[in-house]
Design a protein that fits this description.
4-stranded mixed beta sheet; 12% strand; globular
Length: 130
């Protein structure tokens, strides 16, 4: 199996926990992770949409296809033993629009979810002005 390169927001506790969950459950060497904040490593992947850094993950498959947000989640789950069914479900054409809505809802509340998890919340949009 080839390596999946997973791009994520290292400033987000929820994102960190999600990536850790995938790595713990994936087969060895399935995932390589790159934080959007890692300028040197990100420069090697110009096809990755940096404007999505605060909106969701992206996953680059061995065939060069770039998956984004909910589709990236489904793609990654297809490579986790015992979770393939959920990845297939998320990517099922009739389910994809609903999965995208759920993903957007979770992504929009990730600061709060990070705090609930006892993790560092995303600094973006979390700082008080004054």
């Amino acid at each position: 199996m080839g390596r999946i390169i997973l791009f994520y927001d290292a400033d987000c506790g929820f994102c960190q926990a999600s990536v850790e969950w995938l790595i713990r459950r994936g087969r060895p060497d399935t995932f390589e992770t790159i934080a959007y904040q890692d300028e040197a490593r990100m420069s090697r992947y110009p096809m990755v949409d940096r404007t999505l850094a605060d909106k969701g993950i992206q996953a680059l498959g061995e065939n060069g296809k770039l998956w984004k947000k909910a589709a990236a989640t489904g793609f990654c789950l297809r490579h986790i033993p015992g979770w393939e069914w959920l990845g297939d479900f998320i990517l099922y054409p009739l389910v994809k629009p609903f999965a995208a809505l759920v993903y957007a809802l979770v992504a929009g509340h990730r600061q709060r979810i990070s705090r609930w998890m006892g993790r560092n919340a995303c600094p973006v949009g979390d700082q008080k002005k004054g």
